[in-house]
Design a protein that fits this description.
342 residues, binds uridine-diphosphate-N-acetylglucosamine, 41% helix, two-stranded parallel ribbon, alpha/beta, single chain, 11 helices, 13 strands
Length: 342
């Protein structure tokens, strides 16, 4: 058994896929999650895939006392992957304080506990949202960050700064921030996947729910952007590929292969794909038609963003492998499984 890794938010969408990949790579995993946006059964489902049941502790890292108790109990952690955070852009505009409290206080509590209990390595779940609408595409890591478009985005930016400053001040802490582009898809077994509560805010869950008959039609937010087909362009990254990037980042930290004690990488495919292309690919690959209509632009959407992946490929040594078609098929297989569709 390799080192013991804490995965906060480990029952969530990206967290659960990462736990499975860590276990596949031989790591022992402890999950902390307050189940505010995920289900306890995910722990069972992780075990179904990997054959190993991760340790699971249910609490919110905003609770400083519980956080310290946890670190005291698990005093052999070698690294942390920190996913636990609120992530809905629209909700963050309505409830900014909830976002700042939950996303920032938990991170600060955790870093303090890392110092107290000598945990040296941190991988942070960041986002391409820190780039805003970049002036030049694709975005490299040298692209300057912009003012955030939402409180959610601002928590990612501030979190990166908290980590960078902490690494500079505290010799014992090393960190890697992964700036994800748009994670989509599900595990090929269809045993874990994305399970949004209520009406999905994100494109692919909305598509799969519409295809499954739960929603009447998909609204395409704008076809008058300055892009080839007028709809917005994103870099959609398969969630299992993304999960594997975390394993590579953990190895890099544990084996001290990093070039500097705080590093950050874009995690995407490098391909810009439009909303209309996603719809077309989904219908082509699954053979399932669904209704969609063009409506007004959504406030706060950037026109286009996709990654320059050279640093992730060459320095981190990670590359996206899955095709968009297989990724969309996996999202559909998962939706069918959840809804009991044959
Ligand atoms: C945004 C953030 C990302 C964050 C994510 C969390 C950026 C660049 N990205 O992703 O960091 O983690 O929110 O929620 O800020 N769309 C429709 N109809 C829908 C839903 C979406 O047309 O019903 C379109 C959107 O206009 C967008 C694309 O689909 O062009 C992707 O949208 P979505 O899945 O919500 O992700 P982002 O907004 O790109």
């Amino acid at each position: 058994m390799k080192s013991k890794i804490l995965v906060t938010g480990g029952t969530g969408y990206i967290g659960s896929h990462t736990v499975v990949e860590l276990q596949n790579a031989g790591f022992e995993v402890v999950i902390v999650d307050d189940l505010s946006n995920s289900e306890a059964e995910v722990v069972d489902n992780i075990e179904k895939i990997s054959g190993i049941r991760p340790i699971f502790e249910c609490f919110n890292l905003v609770d400083r006392e519980k956080t310290f108790e946890f670190f005291k109990k698990h005093n052999d952690l070698k690294a942390i992957i920190h996913f636990a955070a609120n992530k809905a852009v629209g909700e963050s505009v309505e409830k900014p304080l909830m976002y700042y409290q939950n996303n920032l206080i938990s991170l600060m509590n955790m870093i303090e506990a890392m110092r107290t209990y000598g945990v040296e390595n941190l991988v942070f779940s960041s986002s391409c949202t820190v780039y805003g609408q970049p002036d030049k595409l694709p975005v490299t890591e040298a692209t300057p960050r912009k003012d955030a478009e939402s409180p959610y985005g601002n928590t990612k930016r501030i979190s990166e700064d908290i980590i960078k400053d902490s690494v500079a001040a505290y010799q014992g802490i090393n960190a890697i921030a992964l700036r994800y582009f748009n994670p989509i898809g599900a595990h090929p077994t269809a045993i874990i996947g994305e399970l949004p509560r209520g009406v999905p805010a994100n494109l692919v869950p909305f598509i799969t729910q519409t295809a499954a008959g739960l929603r009447q039609e998909l609204k395409v937010f704008g076809d008058d952007y300055n892009t080839p087909d007028g709809s917005c362009i994103r870099d959609y990254i398969n969630v299992v590929d993304l999960a594997k990037a975390h394993v590579v980042a953990i190895d890099r930290l544990l084996e001290r292969k990093y070039e500097s004690r705080y590093e950050f990488f874009n995690i995407g495919t490098g391909n810009g794909v439009s909303v209309l292309e996603i719809i077309k690919t989904f219908i082509d690959v699954t053979g399932v038609e669904f209704n969609y209509k063009i409506v007004d632009r959504r406030a706060g959407d950037v026109e286009q963003i996709y990654a320059d992946t050279a640093k992730a490929n060459n320095v981190l040594g990670w590359k996206a492998e899955k095709t968009l078609a297989e990724t969309l098929q996996s999202a559909w297989d998962w939706e069918k499984k959840v809804r009991g569709i044959e």
